[in-house]
Write a structure and sequence with these properties.
Blueprint: H1 2-19, H2 27-50, H3 54-73, H4 77-94, H5 99-112, H6 116-131, H7 137-153, H8 159-169, H9 175-191, H10 195-206, H11 213-229
Length: 232
């Protein structure tokens, strides 16, 4: 039974990854995933209570993490935070090699709840862990998340360094991520009142051949706003 449900967990995780790349969320599918993952969590929790071993703790944590991610996508940050926090605590004990992903999801949920400083602390911990394994997309993603966290906090002087680090770590063929980083440079310039510079960044990002329609629409909107600020 648990073996079958484990494959369901993997399917739900793939679903979450796909949802984050689309222009909108199919909440009916999210609800289905949430129900199935709640059942999976209950199964692994029962297994954990009956036999509190490393394997059952790890699988309970992974199912909690998947449930938390789906809940965050469905606009339930309070529920997501509780499940992601529990998942992280279990992973820290039974599968520390999986902890970074869980803590990063927890940090993003804290940001959703307006807890920016608490999110920053977690993101810096994740960044330290990612740095030990070298460059790559996950390191770039964490740097980018931290840059946006600091931008929202108004700590503008710290933002560019993390965007530089993200750009240095991202694989050269990941055009979408490079466009996203460039768009964030534009956001920083716009926030600082450098509208001409922001316009240049947004135009550069739009010239990149990436496929994400949501990102392209966002860039077009930000470019239009920068033109507006310039009186165009």
């Amino acid at each position: 039974m648990l073996a079958v449900r484990y494959y369901l967990l993997l399917s739900c995780l793939i679903l979450v990854m796909c949802l984050t790349r689309t222009a909108g969320l199919d909440l009916s599918r999210l609800d289905t995933a949430e129900e199935e993952l709640e059942s999976l969590v209950a199964d692994w929790r029962a297994e954990w209570e009956k036999k509190p071993e490393a394997r059952s703790g790890r699988e309970l944590a992974k199912s909690l993490q998947a449930l938390g991610i789906v809940e965050r996508q469905a606009g339930k940050p309070d529920e997501a935070l509780a499940h992601l926090t529990e998942a992280g605590d279990l992973l820290a004990k039974h599968a520390p090699e999986l902890l970074n992903d869980s803590r990063e999801a927890e940090a993003l949920t804290l940001q959703d709840l307006g807890m920016l400083e608490e999110a920053e602390v977690l993101l810096r911990q994740v960044l330290e862990g990612r740095s030990q394994s070298g460059a790559g997309l996950k390191l770039a993603t964490t740097c980018d998340h931290l840059a946006l966290n600091l931008l929202i906090q108004g700590r503008y002087l710290e933002v560019a360094a993390f965007l530089d680090r993200a750009e240095a770590a991202v694989p050269a063929d990941n055009l979408e991520f490079r466009a996203r980083i460039t768009s964030h440079r534009g956001r920083l310039s716009h926030t600082l009142g450098s509208y001409a510079r922001a316009t240049s960044f947004f135009e550069t990002a739009l010239a990149i051949s990436f496929e994400d329609p949501e990102l392209r629409l966002s860039l077009q909107s930000q470019l239009a706003l920068s033109h507006l600020r310039l009186g165009r």
